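User: We ran a pulldown and think these components assemble together. Before we commit to crystallization trials, I'd like a predicted model of the whole complex to look at. Sequences follow.
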Amino acid sequence: MVLDERKLRILSAIIDDYVETASPVGSRTITRKYNMGVSPATIRNEMSDLEELGYLDQPHVSAGRVPSTKAYRLYVDMLLSGARRPIGEDREALQYFTERITQMEDVVQTAAQAVSELTHLTALVMMPGQPTMRIATLQLVPMPRGSALLVIVTDSGIVRDTVIRVSDQLDMDALYTISRMLTETLAGHTLREAQEMLDAYAARSTADQRVLMGVRNLAVQMARQSSVDSVSVDGTHHILNYPEYSDVEKARAFLSVMETRDKLLSVLRSGSGTVTVRIGSEVGLEELGDCSLVTAPFQLGGGFGSIGVLGPMRMPYDRVIRTLSTIGQAMTEIFGSEEIS
Amino acid sequence: MVLDERKLRILSAIIDDYVETASPVGSRTITRKYNMGVSPATIRNEMSDLEELGYLDQPHVSAGRVPSTKAYRLYVDMLLSGARRPIGEDREALQYFTERITQMEDVVQTAAQAVSELTHLTALVMMPGQPTMRIATLQLVPMPRGSALLVIVTDSGIVRDTVIRVSDQLDMDALYTISRMLTETLAGHTLREAQEMLDAYAARSTADQRVLMGVRNLAVQMARQSSVDSVSVDGTHHILNYPEYSDVEKARAFLSVMETRDKLLSVLRSGSGTVTVRIGSEVGLEELGDCSLVTAPFQLGGGFGSIGVLGPMRMPYDRVIRTLSTIGQAMTEIFGSEEIS
DNA sequence: TGTTAGCACTCTCGTTCGTTGAGTGCTAAC
DNA sequence: GTTAGCACTCAACGAACGAGAGTGCTAACA
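Assistant: Here's a predicted model for the assembly, 682 residues in total across the polymer chains.
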């Protein structure tokens, strides 16, 4: 059964009002605030129908109505498909985001911050693992006091560095020669291969073991860190601003789920290649109760990452969708061009 | 007036019990749990004296007693000075911390995480600004698709990188030559000097402006970021576990103070070169109400940073002090040696 | 003089019980 | 199909009240 025009308008008004006020919506409120041109009694009849159809819930008989999961689903589907889709980019979001990006390594963190700041919700970002990442370059940069900074760059543009101790006879040129040799040997190999090669070489070589082991250890660590999907979270504190979480127990439950990265990863991984909205039980984290998760994809080195927000089912879906898809696209571009400023 | 031995024991017991249970302590509790060898009535007389002296407060006449700020002050002073000082390192903390340190840039973040995880309180770390930081080395590392990773290392061991676009005719050797030239020119100069030199040079040179501008921009950005003290925060969510913050309004007030870095900086900067405990109004953030701030210093490039925890006045000061001073020392060592693994 | 038992007293906390008010569903009239 | 009217329901709020924890005081005791 499809809803007629007036029922849709009423349902939409109820959702809008509830998203704004967080309290059950009565028939008089609808007539006053959203002047429908009909009396409260008429609205009541329609609301009664909508409740029968499963679009509205009634906390108790003398309260107003609250949108059900099904209502949000309908509302969001209209947003995502029909002509109402929030087209166009969120200029504010784009500006906010690009202004703050500086370091390559910070893109994910910055994106999460931007999203949580703009939506006042908790932001989640999933970075896809890069198990087949290969070494592109490797360089030793001199540092004071017999140390050197080892920088490894991979073909997907991931940079990692660590400080290792080296013989203090090695000057900039000597370090460059070693870097060049190591790059020639290891470039094009995966991190695990590099580890094996270095182990084998170190065993029968008399060269400076500290450099070799330093490279080996960083490669191992990079392989470990980068082969699995990772997730970062920002803006968890926003949840306290919602009356749904004025109960400290609920707030704590929410925050403790945010600490368990595994669960977050599993729900973020299941996102498709487009903007996805999951409502209530669709989220798949029953500890959270009634939450919604909106995610947008971004591309990184052949895989898909996901950026999203998690919050009460009562959220301004249109704005959230627009912000997320804008930021997602911006991230895809950044990772694609591998250039920042 | 100095407290006699028994009064001290009773006061100490009250503090211990209150730190543990968060509820006012009655005379019977003291006799039962901390067997004092005297009856509740005697304890009551002593408690009455302690209240008169300002060491105890009574929320209302039929509740037990609660330690006052003055009581915590006495308790902490005994910890910090006398023979009761929590000597020795916190092995657990040291292990937890060193296990997790990998990247040089992450030391601060890792330290904050370790502290908040170990103490179950909110951790704060202040990094002192390095306004006179000088360039030590500068290197361009080849990356795919006409890009290069620019790495600047300063004499205090700060590493920063960014990706810049370069002519795709530049191979590893060419980039090294440029790096060498730039290093020779700029090493030993401050970041601001480097910026001016590059501006002047770029104006009259026909060399690849993109490289010069890339270096310039990173130098400017490093100067901006590093000349001011910075602060990072971790574990704000722990506050919800304390009944003092079961009121959502209070929790929100706390979290919003944690968002205002300026205020945090000003209180962290005022720490001395030793472990400092500030209790209640001594903290200097009246928005927080009754909090305590414990800080330990660490050394970084000639300046002093500060690592601390912020939580309810009711906190296990001995453990917190031991953990913080251990981590502070570990950080000093790490920054001093400029080596990690 | 310090310690202790006994007891009246105080005050919070949780419960119960009306009262109030928002909002509904139904009926009858338009 | 719409609307006014009205009885009805139920959460929220506040007052009243009993239970319990803990105190201060007094008088007896070592």
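Chain B touches chain A through 52 residues (CB under 8 Å). That may be worth checking against your pulldown data before setting up trials.

User: Thanks, that helps.
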